[in-house]
Amino acid sequence: MDRPAIVLLSGGLDSTTVLAIAKDQGFTPYALSFRYGQRHSIELEAAKRVAEVQGVARHVIADIDLRVFGGSALTADIEVPKHESLDDVEDGGVPITYVPARNTIFLSFALAFAETVGASDIFTGVTAVDYSGYPDCRPEYMDAFAAMANLATRAGVEGTSRMTLHSPLIARSKADIVREGLRLGVDYSLTSSCYDPDDQGQACGKCDTCLLRLKGFAEAGVTDPVRYQSA
Length: 231
Fold this sequence. Notes:
The chain is an alpha/beta fold and 231 residues long. The protein has helices at residues 13-24, 42-54, 102-117, 139-149, 154-158, 174-183, 208-220, and strands spanning 4-8, 28-35, 58-63, 121-123, 164-166. Helices cover 35% and strands 11% of the residues.
């Protein structure tokens, strides 16, 4: 029996792992990525590679221009913070790389996509462990969105099905995520997580997400297969 599910796919480590998890659980994945005005297209290119290799039923890239609002180092002319190690990252609240309301916007699109393909399941790679401190990655936020989703859809109102929001990585460390992905045969060389890669797609190795990714691979006891500028 076909079990369609929408998987938010950025092309990074977490979302690629979640795609593999959805497939392992028997779902037919429909991947959804966004061209939202981010400072580079490297992650989208990675998402295309991942979607092709993992054999999704359909890969949609939606266009939204969040640059009209700005407010983030990923969508405005604001420098991406760089550090030599995670010890240098100050715990000063929500970082400047947070894109205002991004997950709410992405999940709303996923909800619309789910209704059109008859899916009752949405997978997202948010994690509340080894993450950058974004407010829309917390368990209470995910629970609240799931409750809203069942008030906002035809299937939910008519009682024909209930939307389930899956966040299988939310309580996992980056090392655990890497181990799970490798167990499922994920090729992490296809992925890209860096906020500020160079023109050749090489990761900077010093932004928050690079440092967290490198920490995860190191703690998992394996080498990150992507290319870094400092390597």
